[in-house]
Amino acid sequence: MMASAFVLAVLTAACAPTEEMTSNSAAAENSEDRLAAAVAAPSRSAENVERDQYRNPAETLAFFGVQPDDMVVEIWPGGGWYSEILAPYTQADGSLALYASERGLARMRAKAEAEPSVYTNVLFSLASSPSDLGTIPEGSADVVLTFRNVHNWAMGDEPYADVMFGTMYRMLRPGGTLGVVDHRLPEDRPDADMKSSGYMKQSTVISLAEAAGFELVDTSEINANPRDTADHEAGVWTLPPTLRTGDESKRAIGESDRMTLKFRKPE
Question: Which of helix, strand or coil describes residue 194?
């Protein structure tokens, strides 16, 4: 009888959740709720919200493992599509740094001025060159994110994608995460197509990251679009939202087929 009671007690203890397990579960639930609230933030523009079906923000940020208490750096925020979500998501416990040239930061400064209560914990980091960390201390970021930018760095007469990956590596703390999303060129297409189409081969992006020292952690098809053939007249800009050729029929394809890659800076 005593032996049976002892065995029962041991089994009960073994099956009971530990404080750490309970804490991790609560943190995950809190993170999910706060991310959902950030995606639904009333400060987001209606135009950007309409594109959620193509850009899948909640799923993408969850895949990258972005937490509300992280120090997040967004590289080249452009019009601030993701910044509109990251700012409220990290506002209470984390921070967001927006890294770009002055021209690249101008629209975000205007957005912050229009919604000052949302952008209270945002740093505007001016980069004078691709190798410049701006005001971001080396090794300080938990997460670095860049959305649909690598093709810009690889195009032109003087590509600098390798320099940018090195800069992002220096920003991150050891063990930190790099999240990359970009338009995906089929692997059987000529490399030359990456110079003009706005699409990049996934293998090329992985090679650039690994050459900088990153380890590939995982890939996701969250942002895949099998309807996109990546061979359009005006490159990726043929598709929405740009519709450079004015061909409204392209809306039926949706936005581009995109790779979603998660890297890690080794400890």
Answer: helix
Residue with tokens 């029929």: 249
Could you tell me if 99 and 136 are in contact, meaning their C-beta atoms sit under 8 angstroms apart?
yes
204: left (phi over 0), alpha (psi -120 to 50) or beta: alpha
Structure tokens of 92? Answer: 């209470």
- The answer to whether the pTM exceeds 0.85 is yes
- The first and second tokens of residue 122, run together, are 């945002």
CA angle 154, 158, 162 (to 5 degrees): 50
Coil, strand, or helix at residue 88? helix
The dihedral of CA 216, 218, 222, 224: what is its sign? positive
pLDDT of residue 147: 98
- Residues 32, 33, 36, 38, CA torsion sign: negative
Cβ-contact 146, 74 below 8 angstroms: yes
> 188-242 pLDDT, tens per residue?
999 999 999 999 999 999 999 999 999 999 999 999 999 999 999 999 999 999 9
Which of 196, 171, 164 has its CA nearest to residue 183? 196
Distance, CA of 24 to chain centre: 23
Helix residue ranges per DSSP H, 44-101 = 46-49, 52-55, 57-64, 83-90
H and E: helices and strands count for the chain: 10, 8
Give the residue from 31, 24, 14, 8 showing the smallest Cα distance to 92. 31
Q: Is 18 helix (H, G, I), strand (E, B) or coil?
A: coil
Within 13 A of 253's CA, how many CA atoms are on the CB side?
23
Render pLDDT for 101-137 as a digit per residue (tens, 0 to 9): 999 899 999 999 999 999 999 999 999 999 999 999 9
Report pLDDT digits (tens) over 128-161. 999 999 999 999 999 999 999 999 999 989 999 9
